[in-house]
Amino acid sequence: MFRTLDEADVRGKRVLVRVDLNVPVENGKVADTTRIERAAPTIREIADKGGKVILRFHPGEERNDPGFVAQLAALGDIFVNDAFSAAHRAHASVEGIAHRLPTYAGRSMQDELEALTNVLRTPVRPLAAIVGGAKVSTKLDLLGSLLAKVDTLVIGGGMANTFLAACGHSVGKSLCEHDLLPTAHEIMAQAKSKGRELVLPVDAVVAKTFAANAPSRVVAVDGVGDDEMILDIGPRSIERVCSVLARIKTLVWNGPFGAFELEPFDIGTVEVAEAAAELTAAGKIVTVAGGGDTVAALNAAGATGRFTYVSTAGGAFLEWLEGKPLPGVEVLRAG
Ligand code: AMP
Predict the structure, then answer these.
(1) Looking at residues 73-90, what average pLDDT do you find?
(2) Is any atom of ligand 1 closer than 6 Å to the C-beta of 261?
(3) Best exposed site among 19, 80, 256, 295 by fewest CB in 10 Å?
């Protein structure tokens, strides 16, 4: 379906490789090397097969400028794109170059495409999606497209507060997009009319300040005080989500259940991640997760290695889930 390195004859050729080494740097040190490690196999394979590898970086890139594309194309004989995380951008080294040189997917791109294609095109059902994170507004397209595909949609994180408010619950000082209550109603009505199960939190961990180790308590979703904010899902909600995991075959996950950067408000995310990882390791479910914060949360939970596939891509992963064509993937299609 996609042209990969299997079809590329790289021997003696100058091979332009597009990688994404946009890694988090803390105090001058690379804090997470996942992207570098994932790029290495493609580079090594091309070098081992006798190709000359060229990686680069250029400011003319983002405009997909034809002059820059031509300069870039002149540097190589073959183009290998190994940066799925940039595939949603119509940039010179993602899209433009592919019209000039024979183009193939690198191994990391191939892994990503195969994992995502298997899960969403032909999922083993029941299929559930967990969508968490901060806001409904950034994930509206995602919720819409997932409702068309999944059997169960679990909503968590700050975005669940907008749904709880739409259900008539007072959410106090919680992050909540009050202007989107009609949208939340619409999504709930859509789920009902399509016969999809929508799972919202039934309890929450609330605190008066947005800070690590802020004094907190567990309340039912109708018990949030005016001066409190929801920072995580509660134990009954965790149990409910785990009971969903126990009866599905495939899980897609984007976005944390709470403000996971602040302990102990990572507990909901960590416990669900652990349950999903155990079921995956036992061969009972297939789990695919993606998005920058989600990967950080799963790493912190020690669950990443036991998931079927964890995508390091943020925007590209979301756009893929939303069913949008990605410029960098379209140019790799065979035929
Ligand atoms: P996103 O980038 O949309 O996936 O959102 C991730 C962010 O959502 C993380 O930084 C979390 O801290 C934040 N988040 C999740 N749940 C909550 C919540 N209940 N209140 C405030 N922030 C939250």
Answers:
(1) 94
(2) yes
(3) 295
Residue-by-residue DSSP string for 164-220: HHHTT---TTS---GGGHHHHHHHHHHHHHHT-EEE--SEEEEESSSSTT--EEEEE
- CA–centroid distance, 189 to ligand 1, in Å, is 25
pLDDT digits (tens, 9 = 90+) for 39-49: 999 999 999 99
Domain range annotation of the chain: 5-107, 114-321
How far is ligand 1, taken at its centre, from the CA of residue 204, in Å?
14
- The model's pLDDT over 91-102, given as tens digits with 9 standing for 90+, comes to 999 999 999 999
Q: Is the CB of 296 under 6 A from ligand 1?
A: no
CATH superfamily of 114-321: Phosphoglycerate kinase, N-terminal domain (3.40.50.1260)
Q: Would you state the CATH architecture of domain 5-107?
A: 3-Layer(aba) Sandwich (3.40)
227 CB within 6 A, ligand 1: no
Site to probe by mutation for ligand 1, drawn from 293, 295, 311, 321 as the one with most ligand atoms within 8 Å of Cβ, is 293
